[in-house]
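I hope you will forgive my troubling you with a question about protein structure. The matter concerns a single protein, recorded as an amino acid sequence and a row of backbone structure tokens. Please examine both parts with care and let me know of anything in them that strikes you as inconsistent. Thank you for your consideration; the sequence and its tokens are set out here:
***
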Amino acid sequence: MKRSVRGCYQSEGYVFARNAAEIGKQHGLDWVARLASNENPDPPSEIALKKGYEALCNANRYPDERQVSLNDALIAVHGNFPFVTGVGMDGVIETTIRTLVEPGDLVAISTPTFSFYRLSAIAQGAGVVEVPRGPGFTVEPARFIEACEEAKLAFLCTPNNPTGNGTSPEVIRGILNEIECVLFLDNAYVEFSDLDYLPLLRDYDNLIIGRTFSKAYSLAGLRVGYAFVPEWFRPYYLRAATPHTLNAVSAAAAVGALSDTQHVETARARVIRWRKELSGRLNFPVMQSDANFIMVDVAPFTSDEAVDRLARMGVLARSCRSFRGLEDHYVRVSIGADWENTMCIDAFGRLNP
């Protein structure tokens, strides 16, 4: 009966980072630095935990299908924009594609980047146009604009995963001035940069900006994503969304997290400090990053070879082999807790050809 499975799922799927517990058991390690998944090493805010527990006590009831409390909290923090929510950034991406894309439509994607854009678009029956980045993994606007001419929807991640570099708001404005399709700007890591794209929302009704609570807010396990959207788009997104997908506990914890600005500032300060430190001490070329991770060129090793060697030393990094369009000698390393970052420096110092 396996032949009944759709073709798009026969040969590929999302590639996850390796499991820290399994690596520890395999190599007899008591401590493993978890630097493969771009997580925040800090536990959630106490306020977020309190709000989540309060919601858990009422888990016998369905969550608010419109997430009014979370929507109001987002407005209080960011301003009076229309918002939508989802189960992580993935859920927002998937519902956006479901809302806009019909079988046969084209989706343009700036690559190398987060693989879920492509996987989700193909699952919806779309054709995918991959737009390779230029030198230094920078976006080449003319090339991207040309790819958008026939597209219904386009994805651009900034700061970009896995390369880490951001694209300036001025470049994004130039692209928006020339395209007619909807542009989904993935800002999952924007809290760790000085980039601000929100002013663009006032000028363009084809711009969606996606964000997440998984990184700066330490809620990766609760899966809360959201997006700033045009007013015209919101009602259609709500129709397309699967009912009650964002659970009440996650939504309540997100409301609490938004009120704890110090938690985010602490994470941001640590990332900026260690991002600079790691970039100068790993003995391999490191790409400039605006995110909570760095991408390291580990040649002459392949990505998997370097990741395997680092794992034996107790450092779990992410092989970039699965990122389409990226040469097979890059490794992505998250900024972790102080002890994890110190282990990382030591392990890379012992990573010799």
Notes: The chain has a mean pLDDT of 93. The chain has two domains: 2-43+262-349, 46-258.
